[in-house]
Amino acid sequence: MLKVAILGTGGIATTHIRAYKTFPQRVQVVALCDLYPEKAKSLAKQEGLAADIYTDYREVVKRTDIDLLSICLPPSVHAETAIAALEGGKHVLVEKPMAASLAECDAMIRAAEKAGKLLSVVAQNRYKIPTMK
């Protein structure tokens, strides 16, 4: 069972949660993290999750039972959170844009390579016909 934490509980987090919920035998969302805990609690209730709630992503990264972090935060903190997660032994799925600068993207890639973990950037519309046109 892949255990997932979602960082950020804005609009796109719901999409991540629902995608993970399509694989109930393989994936479990075990933690939500947001600066506003009431927002995270509300989302957990809305989606029927028995997830732990955090306000500091560093506490999530410390958990040894979490395999993957979905980063649904503002791009300005993608690099910081992704690198911390990778260094903490977690795989990372990060929303687009990958980071705020090319240098940050390069640092994220280096962290993934060093940790031997997967770093993936969401690109769900890449192969949709209207997007390709």
* Overall 3D form: globular
CATH C-level: Alpha Beta
Share in β-strands: 15-25%
CATH superfamily: NAD(P)-binding Rossmann-like Domain
- On the 0 to 100 scale, the average pLDDT is 95
How many domains?
A: 1
Please tally the β strands and state the result: 6
CATH architectural group: 3-Layer(aba) Sandwich
Count of helix runs: 6
At CATH level 3, the topology is Rossmann fold
Order the strands across the largest sheet as they lie in space: 3-2-1-4-5-6
Rg over C-alpha atoms, rounded to the nearest angstrom: 14 Å
Name the helicity range: 40-55%
Structural class: alpha/beta
Low-confidence stretches: none
Distance between the termini: 39 Å
Largest sheet: 6 strands, parallel
Order of helices and strands: EHEHEHEHEHEH
What this model shows, in words?
Strands 3-2-1-4-5-6 form a 6-stranded parallel β-sheet, with helices on both faces. It has helices spanning 11-21, 37-46, 57-62, 78-87, 102-115, 129-132; strands at 2-7, 27-33, 52-54, 68-71, 91-94, 119-121. The protein has 6 helices and 6 strands; from the N terminus they run βαβαβαβαβαβα. It is 41% helix and 20% strand. β4 (68-71), α4 (78-87) and β5 (91-94) form a beta-alpha-beta unit. The protein has one domain: NAD(P)-binding Rossmann-like Domain (Rossmann fold, 3-Layer(aba) Sandwich). The chain is of the alpha/beta class. α4 packs parallel to α5 (102-115).
Question: Which features characterize this protein?
Answer:
single chain, 133 residues, alpha/beta, Rossmann fold, globular
